[in-house]
């Protein structure tokens, strides 16, 4: 398996990278393990300054770093700049709050003075996807850097240049060797690394299929794991929603990053009274998107990341139509050499249509008509996934009530779905398990170690004693 940067706008092979050798893997594990033991002797607060330096370097080199993303996977230059800035925000946040979050938690117990300490556990492997090549690394890197867990990165085979660029920033900031080591691992080598005794956990963001293989290996070798997988998020539009506000968010929610976001709104569930107008206006908004060079500021529709991504979504749309879905708009070829897919709207998708339960990773909106709030909630929850979701209502309290009833990991009411370091990110069902970011993400790979102490034993008071 080759790691290649192929520019999805020009289709040019920009650079190819060799797969990691066994010697490189062993060196990375050794370095990481040595750093883990060194970090155990040092307070977390001491690592904050370096994380701030990483944020500063990201901002200083933002333009150059953003261009690497554009060439690697085709996103719009402005969105790429936004991704670099978001990474800096995450690094600064964990630098500012990580040490506080890692402070011991005192417990009240009759056994004695009790507390939970939060210890590092060892080297982690992170397996990351191509859709936000820097941000996905940073979600794991920043909190675990503060915890003191050194990391090995295995990035997508189609975004190797982003992996190299991120690792370079970490090294140039002067983070100790082994903090983050990028390795171009094959799938088999991923399993070998998970099996290694020095590795204590694996964090994967990616597809359900990839997640299942890596989680299986983690289970086999009894390593902690977190899985951030796909989604088929609902965007619920209740009958009292303000359509102008809805439309401001809806186009972006489906076409940002060319629709290749785990939390893109993939299913629009619209109250009967707003359905026709919503469909018409969403269609008009989609038609305004301009495909072109993602480096050109005027372009508003980026190509998909790879030729195979385009082929996959085309096959899904074809299958959906064949199974009875109505093509409301789109699905026409775009006369440009890059991997463009015309923003498409499908309606009349029945439960037996393959599209109903599948994640479509590109600019394809499914629009459903519902006649009650209860029907909207039921449809929103009727998914094998459960990652994010959006609810729009003229009454925030009603929106929140509906949000509480949807089976999913995150819901935003009357706004776009945000990802910020203080907010936990993650899902349920086939969207995976565990959370990244916030204190929940920071604690994902810590040893919550219990320490109980007394001046001398009091064996008359031995309720609960294990002897
Ligand atoms: P993917 O094919 O699963 O790849 C993700 C990562 O897993 C890549 O590094 C990939 O390496 C690796 N991988 C895949 N199969 C593997 C295996 N059998 N053994 C070891 N490693 C394996 O997913 P993707 O297509 O890159 O990403 C898109 C998916 O990610 C979508 O489903 C999206 O919803 C999801 N996603 C989820 C979140 C979240 O936070 N929940 C965020 C972003 C994206 P190779 O490239 O070498 O195959």
Automatic annotation (TrEMBL):
Domain Aldehyde dehydrogenase, by residue range, is 3-450
Q: Name one Pfam family in it.
A: Aldedh
Gene Ontology MF, one:
aldehyde dehydrogenase [NAD(P)+] activity
Q: Does the keyword NADP apply?
A: yes
Domain of life according to the entry? Bacteria
- Active-site positions, per UniProt? 228
| Protein name per the record | Succinate-semialdehyde dehydrogenase (NAD(P)+)
Name the lineage: Bacteria, Bacillati, Bacillota, Bacilli, Lactobacillales
């Amino acid at each position: 398996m080759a790691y290649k940067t192929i520019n999805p706008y020009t289709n040019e092979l920009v650079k190819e990278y060799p797969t990691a050798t066994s010697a490189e893997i062993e060196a990375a594990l050794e370095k990481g393990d040595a750093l883990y033991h060194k970090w155990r002797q040092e307070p977390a607060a001491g690592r904050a300054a370096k994380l701030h330096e990483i944020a500063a370097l990201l901002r200083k080199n933002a333009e150059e770093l953003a261009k690497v993303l554009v060439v690697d996977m085709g996103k719009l230059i402005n969105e790429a700049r936004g991704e670099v800035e978001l990474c800096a925000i995450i690094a600064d946040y964990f630098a500012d709050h990580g040490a506080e979050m890692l402070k011991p938690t005192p417990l009240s117990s009759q056994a004695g003075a009790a507390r939970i300490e939060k210890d590092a556990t060892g080297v982690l492997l992170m397996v990351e996807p191509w859709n936000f090549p820097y941000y996905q690394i940073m979600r794991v890197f920043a909190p675990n850097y503060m915890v003191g867990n050194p990391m090995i990165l295995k990035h997508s085979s189609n975004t190797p240049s982003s992996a190299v660029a991120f690792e370079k920033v970490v090294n140039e900031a002067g983070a100790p060797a082994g903090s983050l080591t990028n390795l171009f691992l094959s799938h088999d080598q991923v399993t070998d690394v998970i099996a290694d005794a020095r590795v204590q956990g694996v964090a994967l963001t990616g597809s359900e299929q990839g997640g299942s293989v890596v989680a299986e290996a983690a289970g086999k070798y009894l390593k902690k794991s977190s899985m951030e997988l796909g989604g088929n998020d609902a965007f619920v539009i209740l009958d009292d929603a303000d359509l102008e506000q809805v439309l401001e968010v809806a186009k972006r929610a489906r076409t940002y990053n060319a629709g290749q976001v785990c939390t893109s709104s993939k299913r629009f569930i619209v109250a009967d009274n707003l359905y026709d107008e919503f469909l018409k206006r969403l269609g008009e908004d989609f038609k305004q998107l301009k495909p072109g060079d993602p480096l050109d500021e005027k372009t508003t529709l980026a190509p998909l990341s790879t030729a195979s991504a385009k082929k996959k979504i085309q096959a899904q749309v074809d299958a959906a139509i064949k199974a009875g879905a109505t093509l409301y708009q789109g699905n026409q070829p775009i006369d440009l050499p890059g991997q463009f897919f015309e923003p498409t709207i499908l309606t009349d998708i029945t439960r037996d249509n393959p599209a109903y339960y599948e994640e479509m990773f590109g600019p394809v909106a499914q629009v459903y008509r519902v006649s009650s709030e209860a029907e909207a909630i039921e449809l929103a929850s009727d998914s094998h996934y459960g990652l994010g979701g959006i609810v729009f209502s003229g009454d925030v309290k009603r929106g929140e009530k509906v949000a509480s009833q949807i089976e999913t990991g995150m819901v935003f009411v009357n706004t776009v779905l945000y990802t910020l370091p203080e907010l936990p990110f993650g899902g349920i069902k086939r969207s995976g398990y565990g959370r990244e970011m916030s204190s929940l993400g920071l604690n994902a790979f810590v040893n919550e170690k219990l320490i109980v102490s007394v001046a001398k034993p009091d064996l008359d008071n031995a309720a609960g004693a294990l002897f």
